[in-house]
Each structure stands twice: as structure tokens, then as C-alpha cells.
Design brief:
Helix content is 82%, strand content 0%. By secondary structure, the protein is mainly alpha-helical. It is elongated, with a radius of gyration of 23 Å.
């Protein structure tokens, strides 16, 4: 009979399990927005690079789908791929997803109209990566004091545990 750990492992390998784990990961209070920014920047960077290199839009979206690293974003890019095949612009295809901010959609739309979509996407990705780096720095600066306090309590407890027997003698 398999243990609960093995059941959880096998459940997380099923499509439903991957989707559930992804929902939990993207909804975490502090780390969730970081995962969103990371997937968004990676997706836009990949798509921008492919378009700049002359890869066809549908092929570029298909490659982006396999690179994004998130089940939710894979679904988003799959839907976008289907909608682009039907003749929609990429900005229209991504408009239904709340994880893509309106400002990014406007920039993508402007890039489509000007014919410089690849350049615009790479700039948006660079901005997203800078935003991600600053968010990571902010998060680590918030965690540092907590770590220092926990280590202080542990070291203080060890010192008390060593010195208390000596003082009782």
C-alpha cells in the first residue's frame, strides 16, 4: 500500500495535480506575484526574441508555450495560439487574461501597429525582469530581520542551556 507521500507525488504528476499545485503556487501571499512576474517576463522575452529572429508568429507562440514554465501560462499561450490561428492580433488574444497588465497589452498593441512587435516585447520583458529583481530585493530585505531574530533566539537558548547548569552549581 503506497504511503501518503507517494500518493501526493503521483497526484502532482497528473494534469489535475499540476493545475492544483500551480494555483497554490501562484496564490502564495509574497511569492505568488514573483512567480507571475517571472513567467510573464520569460514568456515575453522568448516571444520577442523569436519574432525578432524572423520566426513565424504561430511557431513563436508555440515555442513560448513550451518555455513559460507554468501550467496556467501554458493554457494562456495555447488559447492565444488558437485565437491567432483564427486571425486575431496577439494583443486581442491576451486581453482576456488578467495576469497580463493593461499597460503591457497597450504596448504590445502599439508594437503590432508599428511593425516592431519583437523589439517592444523585448523591452517589456526587460522592464518586467527589472521589476522582478527589485521585488526580490524587497522581499529579501523584509525577511532578513526575521531570520536575524530567529537566530538570536536560537543562540540565546543555547547559551542559556549551557550556562544555567553552571549557575546552579
Amino acid at each position: 500500500r503506497p504511503s501518503n507521500g507517494r500518493r501526493a507525488f503521483f497526484y502532482l504528476r497528473t494534469p489535475g495535480g499540476r493545475w492544483r499545485a500551480e494555483q497554490v503556487k501562484l496564490r502564495l501571499p509574497l511569492a505568488g506575484p514573483l512567480f507571475h512576474k517571472s513567467c510573464q517576463a520569460r514568456s515575453l522575452r522568448t516571444l520577442g526574441t523569436m519574432i525578432e529572429s524572423g520566426v513565424a508568429m504561430l511557431d513563436a507562440v508555440q515555442l513560448t508555450l513550451s518555455v513559460c514554465g507554468s501550467v496556467y501560462y501554458e493554457q494562456m499561450w495555447t488559447s492565444a495560439h488558437e485565437r491567432i490561428q483564427q486571425g486575431q492580433q496577439i494583443s486581442e488574444a491576451l486581453a482576456d487574461y488578467p495576469v497580463i497588465p493593461p499597460s503591457v497589452l497597450k504596448m504590445i498593441s502599439a508594437g503590432e501597429r508599428s511593425g516592431r512587435l519583437g523589439t517592444v516585447m523585448e523591452r517589456v520583458a526587460a522592464f518586467g525582469e527589472e521589476e522582478l529583481n527589485s521585488a526580490i530585493k524587497t522581499l529579501t530585505s523584509m525577511i532578513e530581520p526575521a531570520i536575524i531574530m530567529v537566530l538570536g533566539v536560537v543562540v540565546g537558548g543555547l547559551v542559556l542551556a549551557l550556562l544555567l547548569p553552571i549557575f546552579t552549581i
